[in-house]
Design goal:
The complex is a heterodimer of chains A (292) and B (256).
Chain A lengths: L6 H22 L4 H21 L9 H4 L1 H15 L6 H20 L4 H23 L3 H12 L10 H19 L1 H8 L9 H26 L6 H7 L5 H23 L1 H22 L5
Helix pairs in contact in A: 1-12, 2-8, 2-10, 2-12, 4-5, 4-6, 4-7, 4-10, 5-10, 7-10, 8-10, 11-12, 11-13, 12-13
Chain B lengths: L1 E10 L2 E11 L4 E5 L6 H9 L6 E6 L2 E2 L5 H6 E3 L12 H7 L13 H13 L15 H14 L4 E5 L7 H15 L5 E5 L3 H7 L2 E6 L2 E7 L5 H8 L3 E5 L6 E5 L4
Parallel strand pairs in B: 3-8, 3-9, 6-7, 7-8
Antiparallel strand pairs in B: 1-2, 1-4, 4-5, 9-10, 11-12
Classes of the chains: A mainly alpha (292), B alpha/beta (256).
Chain lengths: 292, 256
Amino acid sequence: MAERIKRNEILTAIFFAGAAGALTIVNLSALSPYSLFLLAAGYLTYYAYVSIAEFTPVVRCDYIQSGEGAAGTIGLFIAVIVFGQHRYLPAAAAAIAVFVCLCVIHTALSPKSGEQAVFGIICQAAAAVIAAYLVGDNPARLVQLQAAVMGLSHLSDSDLIIPACACAAGFTALALTHALSPFLRLHALGGDFSHHPPVIDRAVTAGLFAGRSILLAATLLCIGWTSGIGLAVKRLTQGRLRAVIVISAIIATGQITVLIARHAGTVTALASSFALSYAAFIIQILRRPELR
Amino acid sequence: MIEVRHLTITRGGMTALDDVTLSLNDGEIICVIGPSASGKSTLLGALCGMVPTRKGTILVRGDSLPRSGRRRASLTACCASGPPDNPSETVYDFLLLGRELHRRLLRPFSDYDRQVAEDLLALFELQPYRDEAIGSLSGGILKRAVLAHAFAKESYCLVLDEPTANLDLRGERALRRALKRHVVDGSRIAVIASSDLSFAAGTADRLAVMDHGKVVAYCPADSLDAEMIQRVFGVKTIVSRNIYNGRPEIHLFPDG
C-alpha cells in the first residue's frame, strides 16, 4: 500500500538535509578531497551499521552508548602502537575488539538499553584509563589517539584503499540487508519465531555481529566518534523519507563535530559529539519506551 | 493425518511421555488436556520437532517429520510462547513475517501474503494497532498478534500451547474463529494444549486426556464428563451443557 508522505516528515528531512549541506559547504575550504572522500565513506559505513542494527535487536544502543565504540577505538589505538605504521592491521584489531564486545553484550547482558548503556559507560571509563596510561608523556601517541577518536580525515594521507574498502563494505552490507530483509527480520524476532534450525540461527547471529564489527571498524577509521545519533534518529522516524532523514542527520552531526574540532579542538569536538549522541539516545528512550 | 506411535520421551531422568499412540485426523481440532506436568507441552513439542524423540515415531502424512527448516515448519508450526525479541516491528509487518515461510528467497511478499496478513488483522481485531510497534502493545493485544502470526504460516498442523492465556473474550472469540477457519476445508489440523477445560470442550473436536505422560482417554469433546475430570484432575466439578451448541461446560463447586 502506497504510504503518504506527511508534512512533518518533509519538514524534518528539509531541516536535516539543509543543515548537512550548509555545514559541509562551511567545512569545504578546510577539507582536502581525500578527507571528504574518507568522511563520505565513514558516513556510508555508519549508515549501513545503523541499518544492520535493525536485525540485531539484542543491542539496543548506538555505538557510543553500547561500549562498542570504546572497545573498537582502544583496539585500534593499541594495534597502532603495537604494529607501528602498518596500515590495515589496526582496522582488523578494531573489528575484533568490537566483535568481542558484541559477544559480551549478547551473552552477559539483558536486552535492556539502560543496562547496556551502563556497560557502555564502564567500557568508556576503562578505555579512558587505558588510553591515558598508553599516551603517558608521549606527544606522538596523543596524535595517534586523536586519529583514533576523530577518524583519519584530518591527516594528510592519501591512501585510497581504506575509504574504498569502507565504501565496498557499506554498499555490500546495504545491498545484502535489503535483499535478505524479511529473512533477517524474522531471525531478529528470536528463536521462537524462526523456522530455521538453531545452528543456522546461531550462524546468522554470528554473521550479523561480524558485519556490524567490520562496519563499525570502518566507521571508526573514517569518522571516529564524530557522529553517533544515527540509530536514535532512525528509531524516532518513520515513513518514506526515513533514509533521507537518517543520512542527513548523520552528515549534519559529523560536520558539526568537524567544525568544532577546527575551531575549538578535539576535546571540545568529542564532548559535543558525546552530548549530541546521548541527547538523541535519551529522547529515543523517552519516546520509544518499548526500546528501554 | 498425523500418527504418533509408541512415543516415549525422557527429560531429565523423568518419563515425560510414556508410550503415547494417537491418530490425528485432517480437518479436526484436537485439544490436549490434563493436569500440570502430565506431558501436554512435551507432546506438542514433539509434534513440532522441537523435542527430540528417541523411542517411537511421528508420521506426518505418512512420512517422518523433517528435522528442521522450511519443510518442517510448513508441516507443523508451533506458536511462540514468549514475546518477540525485536519490539520495533509494526503489527502488520509482524503478521506479514509469518508468511516468510512461503516467500521465495530474494522475492517480495506476494499479494496473497499481504491479503493473509490483512485478513488476520481483521479476524483478530488488530486494525487499530496496525502501525504500532509490537513492543508497545499490552499483554492481551500482543498475545492476539502472536497467535495471528502463527496462523499466518498456514501450516498443515498448527500447534498452540495454552493459547487462551492472557486473552480477553474478544481474543478468545477470534481464536475460536481462526481455529475453525484453519481446519474448515478438511485438509489441516490444529492441536492445542489448554488448561481451560471449557474452552477445550467448546472448541475441540477431540480431546486427548493426559495423565502422568500417558494418554488415558482420546475421545470426542462432547464426551467429557465430571467423572473423567475427577479421575484425572482429582477435582469434583459440575459439567453442564451449553444451551446453544450442547458442548460441555465445566464449573467448580462454589465451596471448592
